């Protein structure tokens, strides 16, 4: 039986929330840190999780409460806050001597943000697709011994791409471009540092 339009939209919203960029930016460094060094690595993963995901999320929520905020009006402050947070988090990781894999995850998310910034000024590339595909690329490199998790992430990339189009947030071209940018930027940066 096919999904009703209501079920499709509800499912798409759920997928978009589960795999939101901030959710992945919080989870992925912790998972990679745990895989690299156990509890100590996971603890180091909390640094990029906080600076890449949590602080930008809190700033976004704060902006959303401001009455003069619009979708386009808050994009630049959100991006600049995320950029400042990412750089701060990377600085802490470098100074603290964090495991290379955790540093690589933070740097990979920074690469995606830097890649997306000039594009979003003119075109609405999918940040959801970029972070999901980038996360899948990092996990494919970091967790080679766990192919089922990697396959699940590839499925998540497809589900996120579908959800963003289903919700009419992006066109198929915007999600494909986001996924390609995320996969290439994260894969290249993560593999060169880790």
Describe the structure.
The protein is mostly helical and 194 residues long. It is 85% helix and 0% strand. It has one domain (5-193). The protein contains seven helices and no strands.
- Can you give the helix content as a percent range? over 70%
- Overall pLDDT score: 90
Rg is 16 Å
| Number of DSSP strand runs | 0
Order of helices and strands: HHHHHHH
Content-based structural category:
mainly alpha
Describe the sheet with the most strands: none
Put the structure in a nutshell.
With 194 residues, the protein is mainly alpha-helical.
Key terms for this structure?
mainly alpha, 85% helix, 194 residues, single chain
Topology:
Blueprint: H1 5-18, H2 21-65, H3 71-96, H4 100-120, H5 127-142, H6 147-166, H7 172-193
Helix pairs in contact: 1-6, 2-3, 2-4, 2-5, 3-4, 4-5, 4-7, 5-6, 5-7, 6-7
